[in-house]
Amino acid sequence: MLGNLTGWHLLVVLAVILLLFGAAKLPALAKSMGQSARVFKSEMKEMKRDDEVAAAQSSDVPRPADNGTASTVAPEPRRSTDPTV
Questions:
Q1: Of 47, 49, 68, 51, the residue nearest 59 (C-alpha)
Q2: For 60-64, which contacts have Cβ atoms below 8 Å and span 24 or more sequence positions?
Q3: Cβ atoms of 2 and 9 closer than 8 Å
Q4: Are 6 and 14 in contact (CB under 8 A)?
Q5: Which of 5, 21, 44, 63 qualifies as a cystine partner to 9, CB 3.0-4.6 A?
Q6: Are 66 and 72 in contact (CB under 8 A)?
Q7: CA dist., res. 17 & res. 15, Å (int)
Q8: From the centroid of its chain, how far is CA 14?
Q9: What does the DSSP assignment read for 52-64?
Q10: The model scores a pTM over 0.70
Q11: Residue-wise over 29-44: b if at least 16 C-beta within 10 A, else e?
Q12: Closest CA relative to residue 32, chosen from 19, 46, 21
């Protein structure tokens, strides 16, 4: 599909881009594209790390039994002493 493109075609495309965006906006455009690529890459790494953590948690490794410590028991809701409620 792109095998018929030559160097001249690439130069024409670059000239059209330069005319559309202007020389002053091209560095800002390149910077924003680089920042977007960095954010995308870091998010992909984070998703991969989250998947590895989830896989490690769901593996067949036995978990310690819940002994009802304060950190695992929800507090009781407060009851009102007001008889009108």
A1: 51
A2: none
A3: no
A4: no
A5: 5
A6: yes
A7: 5
A8: 31
A9: HHHHHHTSSPPPP
A10: no
A11: eeeeeeeeeeeeeeee
A12: 21
